[in-house]
Amino acid sequence: MLPSQDIDRLIEIMKALRTPETGCPWDLEQNFKTISPYTIEEAYEVADAIEREDLHDLKEELGDLLLQVVYHSRMAEEEDAFAFGDVVEAITKKMIRRHPHVFGDEEQKAAGFPKGTWDRIKEEEKQERKQQRAQMGLTEKLPRFLDEVPSAFPALTEAEKLQHRASKVGFDWGAAEPVLDKIKEEVEELTDEVKADAPDRAKIEDELGDVLFAIANLARHLEIQPEAALKRTNAKFRRRFAHIEDAAQAENRPLADLSLDEMENHWQAAKKFDPTR
Predict the structure, then answer these.
(1) Secondary structure class of 115 (helix, strand, coil)
(2) 21, 76, 131, 248: least surrounded by Cβ within 10 Å?
């Protein structure tokens, strides 16, 4: 089998990998839940290539992410649920429907995209989905206000979006200052648990989660994405730690041989070279 630019070749490859007896043993063992973490990982690797502005890697990572779509589609097809073509049809239908000012008739194009159009289309889609699920015999649970925020989001992002959603009905501090006070309160509670005579790991984890949740709330009020802020700090940590590593190499010493005091001195030097980034 030869590589190809045709999507059908990728579908053929996945079908072959999932064919009993002749396919790949590892691929045959997988299911939606076991593949899901890889799907999330590949999406992050796409984002990483974009952040590094590496278009060569981006091409490779987009291929890996596309493979995940084909993989899930193949497993669904094996269960007679849907196939890759159905996925393509669903997203093309959605994109055409959500952009009447681009794909609609002349009257719709002339009207542009009036305020409220997006919400109206989303509501229509929601009702159609409800009807389709009913026809398939799938029970529809009573929707909760926060259900629109996927639990599969990274935790900090989920926290920020949950708080933003709750703020729409007035469940909010209203300003950054009270959130700062809340963070101090949560840190004090965490400190009490850590310093307890018999520390309870579960309670410590709960209190630490409360601190992170409050910090995500502060980021929202400051109009800063918490994931972006932490990413920025992670990058700064990488740069400054690399300075320590470079210093060790300059001395022909293994990194692990440096004492903590030596590492701290090199860290402080790195901060002088990298004060604001």
Answers:
(1) coil
(2) 21
